[in-house]
Specification:
heterodimer, A: alpha+beta, Aldehyde Oxidoreductase, domain 4, seven-stranded mixed beta sheet, 20 helices, globular, B: 12 strands, binds flavin-adenine dinucleotide
Chain lengths: 795, 265
């Protein structure tokens, strides 16, 4: 038996060797013979009619190979960029789904909308030529905010989408909610904005496309979280390339957070163009280009009402949201503020009646789609905020009101009134753990110490649950998914016993090469070093739906677990033959097949060898070779959750909020690699803190210009914004995934914004502050304090 | 980035001559501001004249009643200078608050002052201390040098060679960092001399400016309480997505108080 590093161990990450020594292989590192450079010309206007494009000067510029526009796309009769979800309104009327051409046709609808693709020998020449392109725009007024977009008389993005409403979606029992509200002893109300975010993965998007005339095959290297889905969407629905003639490779990818889980027009344009110019083409986005073209996240305006009885029991919850879709429907766009939002409004509470209406709205902004957490942070924020509002209005302690309404551990599986059924969980256990870990008892002393320095200290709770492990295909299909959401894995045992796994998820920072190797090492008893994980190449990996929605371990890991079980099952057959025993008597443990009750054993390597050199082998009944594949379609979502407690200090003189303590106790099910889980939590929490305190994508109403168009104006959270975080797990096992795992990729981002804002409001509650919109910037806090007419703090 | 010629003269007159003789040429010092603008194609000079080989532009000299800092001295060197730390600790502190370690190792005092970014830190120190800008042709008083948004009194072809700072009795700088860029949303430099106090504000408006009422009050009583009630007018202050004008005005008072505190500690 080798060096098994299995479930529960925290080995250093395998992939970090190449990342930390500068040996990663990112798209922009790749060079192809004869490669040209492509540059996208993007709309400078939020909304304009495209009257014409004069290519002549650009075409005449040095080194220019081709200039392509929407007219060329139209002439080639190419498809529109597809939306992967089709939602419907309450009457079953499908959403409005206007075409999303890969290069703008007739109109541009956001700053950054692509109007042309310029290909030249070098990036400098392509950039220079791009500046020579004359685009004749008839500028129209832009509308960027959802409230403005649905107002009568607002600029209309599409002729056939009245009031810019893509879909008027609803969920839940409206009548039951109304009845409950009539009986309520108290109704808490809250209006809030969920701020728009820009994903900012460290590596900007990039692509290389190549066409081989000899085989009629295309290859696209792209910064993608789901290469097989790109192959399907782009090949089958946009460019009409047969699947077997299209290879999509997503090599090392420097972070995604959702930004790279969509099929982008750039991918389609560059692939199509590579055949036209018969040369490979490379495009690498700049950071600024990413700001106006990477899909943004969040951007809701919401009114919520919670009905309670006199004891503070939740009777019903009603939520009305306007969700920004941007200028077109992106791959998952309409799914995020609906199916991934409404079903989470039950939270960890027993609220019997819930109704949610979401108007999904087009505006002259970058299309909005999934960003880490995707819909669930928005739901958690509304719910966890209004719980605090209700507690304060009714004079009930914030922890107490949560306890009174929490689903007890014994009540699982728990059917919510909004579709989902939680299989397992222990929210009270997470809360109790967090209260201790955060030293809530000592808060009073800390608050007094802050007060003596003229600072206000606050504590904020978020007890939340999310749904991840996307997704049970049948369930998703009912909700409007146009594809399946299973995952696949192949376990290839080599004749010498080493293992290569081909898996359909994509590792872009999550540590899959380590976690998945641990699973195989544990299950097969092979050395951790002897397991390699292959992903991100449609020619090497059978199939896959990719990585998003905290699904890789939950769905991909389950497929891997199943495939590994099949290897063991076949190994037992081979061992039975070699050991001349009945198959039922063969045991597999710690890398050895043995006959129960005897000392007759064969090692895993022996069995692998026999499978590939089948001289003494049951060839009549068993194929040679030791390679198994499994597809896994989950039976339910998984429901990680937990309790986050944030502690902040506010400087009333400047309005600055400082996060001074952060505690998270999360239920993520079985933990494969504690170090990686902790890292996922840390990163997720920082992103949530970023939303709560710093990040804000701001557009100018009217012109549609992005005012926060670079890192100079869009504030990312930094290391010095963060205290040391306390991260613990309090796990219950998922009842339906093979290893009991629940997923941990997004929990940090989902639980944290509400915890932070609840803490800020708590710090300012004595001044009558009841809500703070995100991000809680110094200016915003100062303004609130002005309105609360705070006496000037004494020096 | 468009192609450009590159010159690296070793004499100041040669540098000045290159600058005047080549149309659309530009000086490059640390390049921390200029290179990004060229990369973004916002500037496309035909030639760059690099000041890094001009030895006389580097170094910090003790003149007794003043300190002279060569134009090519990087922020990190000023921050770490024992001389500056001893004689004008507020200036060393200011240098340490600029950008990040990489920017401080490359960016220079001459480049920062010549650029006169409305949110840069050095202009507050230079104006607050009433420094003198020494150029290839003359000496310019700080009060005459900064002319508003990226505008200075520099003539075409004129090169800053050094900045001469009078040594104050006390001086302090307090900076409220803009959340994203970490330039000054509002930065206030306060310096007390035998003949009075100077207060210079950066970040709040289109250019660095002084606050006479605060100077008067602090000359009477060099204590934060002396200016706690002095509000500056919102008019003419910057309003943007990070801060509205009235908030910036409020911060001027807060940062001025903290700068006095820093000067006193
Ligand atoms: C990430 C980042 C963060 C930053 N943060 C801050 C901050 O917090 N506070 C702050 O104040 N600054 C900040 N800066 C700016 C930094 O201080 C720059 O170094 C400074 O603005 C310019 O100095 P430089 O030597 O790099 O000049 P360069 O970029 O080389 O030149 C700037 C301009 O000055 C001209 N010039 C340069 N030297 C001379 C001279 N001797 N005589 C005449 N003209 C000259 C050049 O022609 C050019 O027009 C930051 C920069 C970056 C990139």
């Amino acid at each position: 038996m080798g060096n098994v590093i299995g479930i529960g161990a925290s080995p250093k990450r395998k992939e970090d060797q190449r990342f930390l020594t500068g040996r990663g292989n990112y798209v922009s590192d790749i060079k192809r013979p004869g490669m040209t450079a492509g540059v996208f010309v993007r709309s400078l206007h939020g909304h304009a009619i495209l009257r014409g494009i004069d290519k002549s000067a650009a075409l005449a510029a040095p080194g220019v190979v081709a200039v392509l526009t929407g007219e060329d796309v139209a002439a080639d009769k190419l498809g529109s960029l597809p939306c992967g979800w089709g939602i419907s309104d309450a009457k079953g009327v499908p959403m409005k789904e206007p075409p999303f051409p890969m290069l703008a046709q007739g109109k541009v609808r956001f700053v950054g909308d692509m109007v042309a693709f310029v290909i030249a020998e070098t990036p400098e020449q392509a950039n220079a030529a791009a500046e020579l392109l004359t685009v004749d725009y008839e500028v129209l007024p832009s509308v960027v905010g959802v409230l403005e977009a649905v107002r009568p008389g607002a600029p209309q993005l599409f002729d056939d989408v009245p009031n810019n409403i893509c879909c008027d979606w609803e969920l839940g029992d409206k009548a039951a909610v109304e009845t409950a509200f009539r009986k309520a002893a108290h109704v808490a109300k809250l209006s809030l904005v969920n701020n728009r975010l820009i994903g900012n993965p460290m590596e900007p998007r990039a692509a290389i496309a190549e066409f081989e005339p000899g085989t009629d095959r295309f290859t696209l290297w792209t910064t993608s979280q789901f290469p097989h889905v790109v192959r399907f969407l782009m090949g089958a629905l946009v460019l009409n390339i047969p699947q077997h003639k299209l290879r999509v490779v997503a090599p090392d990818v420097g972070g995604g957070f959702g930004v790279k889980q969509f099929h982008y027009g750039e991918e389609a344009v560059i692939t199509w163009a590579a055949k036209r110019v018969k040369r490979p083409i490379k495009w690498v986005a700049s950071r600024s280009e990413g700001y106006v073209s990477d899909r943004h996240g969040r951007d809701h305006v919401t009114e919520a009402e919670l009905a309670l009885d006199e004891y503070g029991k939740f009777l019903a919850f009603r939520v009305n949201t306007l969700a920004n879709m941007g200028g077109y429907l992106s791959t998952f766009g309409p799914n995020i503020p609906t199916n991934l939002y409404g079903p989470l409004l039950g939270g960890v509470y027993t609220t019997p009646a819930i109704y949610c209406n979401v108007k999904v709205v087009f505006t002259n902004t970058v299309p909005v789609d999934a960003y880490r957490g995707a819909g669930r942070p928005e739901a958690t924020f509304v719910l966890e905020r209004i719980v605090d509002v209700a507690a304060s209005e009714m004079g009930i302690d914030r922890v107490e009101i949560r306890r009174r309404n929490m689903i007890p551990k014994e009540a699982y599986p728990y059917q919510t009134p909004v579709l989902v059924q939680y299989d397992s969980g222990d929210p009270m256990g997470c809360l109790d753990g967090a209260l201790v870990a955060a030293d809530v008892k000592g808060f009073g002393v800390r608050k007094a110490a802050s007060a003596s320095k003229g600072k206000f200290r606050g504590l904020g709770y978020s007890t939340y649950v999310e749904a991840c492990g996307l997704a049970p295909s049948r369930f998703a299909g009912r909700l409007g998914a146009r594809g399946g959401l299973y995952e696949s894995a192949t376990v290839r045992v080599h004749p010498t016993g080493q293992v290569t796994v081909m898996i359909g998820t994509h590792n872009h920072g999550q540590g899959h090469e380590t976690t998945f190797a641990q699973i195989v090492s544990e299950k097969l008893g092979v050395s951790f070093e002897n397991v390699d994980i292959v992903f991100g190449d449609t020619d090497r990996v059978q199939f896959g739906m990719g990585t998003y929605g905290s699904r890789s371990l939950v769905v991909g890991g389950a497929a891997l677990s199943k495939a590994t079980d099949k290897v063991i099952a076949k190994g037992k057959k081979i061992a039975a033959h070699l050991l001349e025993a009945a198959e039922v008597d063969i045991q597999f443990e710690a890398g050895n097949f043995s006959v129960a009750g005897t000392d007759r054993t064969k090692s895993f390597e022996d069995i692998a060898g026999a499978a590939y050199v089948p001289h003494n082998y049951p060839l009549e009944v068993l194929e040679p070779g030791l390679e198994e594949q499994a597809y896994y379609d989950p039976v339910n979502f998984t429901y990680p959750g937990g309790c986050h407690i944030a502690e902040v200090e506010v400087d009333p003189e400047t309005g600055t909020v400082t996060l001074v303590n952060y505690t998270a106790v999360d239920d993520v099910g079985t933990v494969i690699n504690p170090m990686i889980v902790e890292g996922q939590l840390h990163g997720g929490i920082v992103q949530g803190v970023g939303q709560a305190l710093f990040e804000n994508a701001v557009y100018d109403e009217g012109s549609g210009q992005l005012l926060s168009g670079s890192l100079m104006d869009y504030c990312m959270p930094r290391a010095d914004h963060m205290p040391m975080m306390k991260v613990e797990t309090h796990s219950t096992l998922c009842t339906h995934t093979p290893m009991g795992v629940k997923g941990c990729g997004e929990v940090g981002t989902i639980g944290s914004p509400a915890a932070v804002i609840n803490a800020v409001v708590d710090a300012l509650a004595h001044l009558g502050v009841t809500h703070v919109d995100m991000p809680a910037t110094p200016n915003r806090i100062w303004r609130l304090l002005q309105n609360a007419s705070l006496p000037v703090a004494a020096e | 980035m468009k192609p450009f010629a590159y010159h690296q003269p070793d004499q100041i007159p040669d540098a000045a001559k290159l600058l005047t003789s080549i149309e659309d040429s530009k000086l490059v010092a640390g390049g921390m501001t200029l290179i990004p603008t060229i990369k973004q194609r916002l500037a496309s000079p035909v030639a760059l004249v690099d000041l890094s080989k001009l030895g006389s532009l580097k170094g910090i000299i003790d003149d007794g009643a003043s300190i002279t800092i060569g134009a090519m001295t990087p922020h990190a060197v000023v921050a770490a200078s024992k001389l500056v730390q001893t004689k004008i600790p507020g200036l060393a502190a200011l240098a340490l608050m600029i950008g990040d370690p990489a920017v401080r190792s490359r960016g220079t005092i001459g480049g920062s002052v010549a650029n006169n970014d409305p949110a840069a830190d050095y202009p507050a120190g230079v104006l607050g201390l009433g420094a003198t800008i020494v150029t290839s042709t003359r000496e310019i008083a700080a009060d005459k040098f900064f002319l508003g948004l990226f505008e200075t009194a520099l003539e075409p072809g004129e090169i800053i060679t050094a900045i001469r700072f009078p040594v104050p009795l006390k001086a302090g700088y307090s900076k409220f960092k803009a959340p994203a860029s970490r330039y000054a949303l509002v930065g206030v430099f306060v310096a007390k001399f035998a003949d009075g106090v100077r207060v210079a504000v950066t970040g709040a408006g289109p250019g660095v400016f002084r606050v006479p009422p605060m100077e008067a009050a602090l000359s009477e009583n060099f204590d934060p309480s002396a200016i706690a009630a002095i509000k500056i007018d919102n008019d003419g202050l910057t309003s943007d997505i990070h801060a509205e004008a009235d908030y910036r005005a409020h911060l001027v008072t807060v940062m001025a108080k903290r700068a006095v505190d820093a000067a006193l500690s």
